[in-house]
Design brief:
By secondary structure, the chain is an alpha+beta fold. It has 1 helix and 16 strands. GO terms for molecular function: cell-cell adhesion mediator activity.
Length: 237
């Protein structure tokens, strides 16, 4: 029975064997029987199962014997570590969810950094601790490891994250790239126009027609030479 609210949860007798009350079926059972050592096992434990349980023995000739066992729920940390790298800052986020609440610290070389911590308590009894490390000079951390240390129930575990070289936009660099692209496009357009203009002039010359782009020009035809003095008049010699 649970000590805080006494009620029979599971009983055992030679006559009836193990009897689990309906409210606790598929939830708990006696997995070891013995006067010196009796074990109850819980499945799918929740925060409501935490507490102290009293074990009562009624033995012939020895009377009643009892003992109390207390159940405390622990949840091992689930840790997530990631980073966001840009030109002028590096933010590394380490989050750990556990019961009881974990503690987070950082192991990283260098200076010019600070961190912020947020604590969130969940309805299931676990606690999330979210720590964000802000590094002001990210380029010095590229190729190195940032280590998040999680302390839980007296044990410290290290979780490392290598910082890879990312790609970020620099405003001067971006302007230079855009200017270069525009210049290349303009040069391509100019070369394309000049090439086609030369081809058109060669085609007109081969057909014996005067260049329409010039006011005065000479072009040869099989029967003679036309001297063009303007767009309106021409004489044949």
């Amino acid at each position: 029975m649970k000590a805080s609210s006494p009620e029979n949860m599971v009983t055992f007798s030679k006559e009836h064997g193990v009897v689990v009350q309906p409210a606790y079926k598929d939830k708990m059972n006696i997995t070891e029987l013995g006067l010196q050592n009796t074990t109850i096992t819980f499945w799918n434990t929740t925060l409501d199962d935490e507490g102290c349980y009293k074990c009562l023995f009624n033995t012939f000739g020895s009377g009643k014997m009892s003992g109390i066992a207390c159940l405390t729920l622990f949840v091992q940390p689930k840790v997530f570590l990631h980073y966001k790298l840009s030109e002028d800052h590096l933010n590394v986020t380490c989050s750990a969810n556990a019961r009881p609440a974990p503690a987070i610290s950082w192991k990283v070389a260098g200076s010019g950094m600070d961190n912020s911590t947020e604590i969130i308590t969940h309805p299931n009894g676990t606690t999330s601790v979210i720590s964000v490390l802000h590094i002001k000079d990210p380029k010095n951390q590229v190729g190195k490891e940032v280590i998040c240390q999680v302390l839980h129930l007296g044990t410290v575990k290290d979780f490392s994250q290598p910082v890879n070289k990312g790609f970020w936009f620099s405003v001067p660099l971006l302007l230079s790239i855009v200017s270069l692209v525009i210049l290349l496009i303009l040069i391509s357009i100019l070369l394309y126009w000049k090439r086609h203009r030369t081809q058109d002039r060669a085609r007109l010359h081969s057909e014996g027609r005067c260049d329409e782009l010039e006011a005065i020009s000479l072009c040869s035809i099989p029967d003679g030479i036309i001297a063009v003095t303007s767009h309106e008049t021409a004489t044949i010699r």
